[in-house]
Amino acid sequence: MFILNNIKSKLHSFLTEIGALSYFTSRFFKDAFKRPFEFKEFLRQCYNMGNRSLLLVGITGFIIGLVLTLQTRPTLMEFGAVSWMPSMVGISIVREIGPIITALVCAGRIGSGIGAELGSMRVTEQIDAMEVSGTNPFKYLVVTRVLAVTLMLPLLVIIGDAVALFGSFLVENVKGNVSFTLYFNQVFNALEFGDIIPATIKSFFFGLAIGLVGCFKGYYCKKGTAGVGKAANSAVVFTSLLLFIIDFIAVFVTDIFYDL
Prior knowledge:
Elements: H1 2-32, H2 39-78, H3 85-123, H4 126-132, H5 137-176, H6 180-190, H7 193-219, H8 225-259
Helix pairs in contact: 2-3, 2-5, 3-5, 3-6, 3-7, 3-8, 5-7, 7-8
């Protein structure tokens, strides 16, 4: 009986949070197109989230390119298919590995930062002070951050893909003496718009999910300093789960259009 009640409590809490997040999302879309538009704060958030995540995304992408090529090359050599390495790595990174790895890195870097920042503002009653002063804290704090993440993440994905492909090229150049021109010619010959467009579109949804969950957890943070840490932690966990769900839906929908 205790286990059953615990499951019911957890399920009720989960469904309540899903409902609150849905309302939060609808409020975002309602306020995003209302005046005044906080362009200055939006640009500042774009710089904070884009520029400050660039190094981490670049290093992660570079290592992914190196590891993927080093791990795959021996298997392809057994079948005499090393010449397919650029095409295989290019399609794998652009279609799937680049977007999801970059999104997970940004969920940890950006999502937790948003959750902790807004959570600390809620705990120190700065958000309440903004409401009393007549400003709209939701529009200034939430809308600008969500839009900034939604815009910046696809750019970070493109940069991460490029750095990952360069890392893969370095391995091929050292191991197989493949030139820069030959490697990237094979990569671009293998890629199609059907590989690039779905990956780019789902990157926008990844950014939207990171921004919404991070802002939601921070904006409704419970009182106390412990609530700030919990908001940052739960933002990363919830966002990571949501990213995999969005990725599955995107792959499923793309596969349907390919079959048509």
